[in-house]
Amino acid sequence: MAGESFRLTISAETGKEMAGFVRKQLRRAHGMLRARIQELSVVFVGDRRMKQLHWQFMGLGTTTDVLTFPLDEDTKRRVVSGEVYVCIAEARRQAKTRGIPLKHEVLLYSLHGLLHLCGFDDRTERDHREMHHMEDKILTNLGVGQVYARQIKGQPPHRRSGMGYNAGRSFGRPGTRANRRGIGGENAE
User: pLDDT digits over 137-175, tens only?
Assistant: First the structure.
């Protein structure tokens, strides 16, 4: 439950300088969500590793921004632990295009994964709007401001390429006991 302890670890193959910022903000976001997630691991990776994961778990041979893996659930089938892989290279490209700080884009991707683990989905247009509205609401409450809703020149404000989607409930991740299929990840353009 939300009142129980929350264990958050961040591992960085790249982007180590953002770990402290993301850790602090994700802890605060977890509290705002009153999330049942008790354990979350966030892993910052580069394009090569993300492309491998995207192929292995989604069957897509491109990089993506974020992949989310539920690892365990409670007796009511609610996710209580998970892992989120964030592609720092994709975040860097998007942040540059959007003119925002890289750490804000990385936080957006990390929060996106946390929201998937909390049951949010973005496969339908309605769910997409609701999920990304929640992201920007939380980011605003954290003092970061809207990140997702900021329009990129030439793209509609409600759709960005690359944000992951919830592909269904399946437990496992690279190196875990049930290595099947992950959640999240559309092609990054």
Answer: 999 999 998 888 775 555 554 344 444 433 333 444 454
In 3D, which of 169, 168, 97, 163 has the Cα closest to residue 136?
A: 163
Token pair recorded at residue 1: 């439950």
Structure pTM?
Answer: 0.82
> Could you tell me the CATH number of the domain that includes residue 78?
3.40.390.30
CA atoms within 13 A on the CB side of 63: 15
Domain limits at 100?
7-141
Q: Tell me, yes or no, whether 159 lies in a domain.
A: no
DSSP-derived 3-state class of residue 21: helix
Range 140-143, long-range pairs (CB < 8 A, 24+ positions): 141/32, 142/25, 142/28, 142/29, 142/107
Structural domain contains residue 174: no
Q: What's the structural domain count of the chain?
A: 1
